[in-house]
Design brief:
This protein is mainly beta and 162 residues long. It has one domain (2-160): Kelch-type beta propeller (Neuraminidase). Helix content is 0%, strand content 46%. The protein contains no helices and 15 strands. The chain has strands spanning 2-4, 9-16, 21-29, 34-39, 55-59, 64-68, 86-90, 95-100, 111-113, 116-120, 125-129, 132-134, 144-145, 148-152, 157-160. The protein has a four-stranded antiparallel sheet, with no helix packed on it. A four-stranded antiparallel sheet has the order 5-6-7-8, with no helix packed on it.
Length: 162
């Protein structure tokens, strides 16, 4: 969940319904007290696939919503492709952009879930902190944790800060 405070709109993407991950996308107009289904399945408009335990955050400068991370059940990790994809949704054009197929190859985080994410509007920086990682090389089902990453929005570059 994220909010566009200037326009009073809350956005929700996907989640878990008790039996499967979802790829639905919704907005809630606070003033009108009205929900709107933007997409029943974001994949139909080249958006992210179903996911839960991910994060979305709003950048007021670009008017984009950034999407990172997802949970994959340990039993499904063997047969499912474990890609750390990264998306943005442009609110004004109602268009999805796949920023990266694999953030790891660009110096960003592994596939993560239960992390925190926010945008510093003044510096044009997206910050990603913590969370649990799902490694491609994971043999056992032990827990590994992520670090603090900085994504420069204008340059499209990642940096592991700590």
């Amino acid at each position: 969940m994220t909010i566009d405070p200037d326009n009073g709109v809350v956005y929700l993407l996907g989640g878990w319904n008790g039996s499967e991950d979802l790829a639905d996308f919704w907005s809630f107009d606070i003033r009108k007290q009205r929900w709107k289904c933007i997409a029943k399945d974001t994949r139909t408009s080249k958006g992210p696939g179903p996911r839960s335990c991910h994060k979305i955050t709003f950048d007021p400068t670009s008017r984009r919503i950034y999407v990172l991370g997802r949970y994959v059940d340990p039993d499904a990790r063997i047969k499912e492709e474990l890609v750390a994809d990264f998306f943005a949704y442009e609110i004004d054009t109602a268009r999805w952009i796949k920023i990266s197929n694999d953030t790891i190859s660009q110096g960003g985080p592994e596939l993560i879930y239960d992390h925190q994410m926010c945008v510093d509007q003044e510096t044009g920086t997206l910050w990603v902190f913590g969370g649990r990682t799902i490694s491609r090389d994971e043999i056992d089902k032990s827990t590994a944790y992520s670090g603090l990453y900085r994504y420069n929005i204008a340059q499209g570059t990642w940096l592991l800060v700590r």
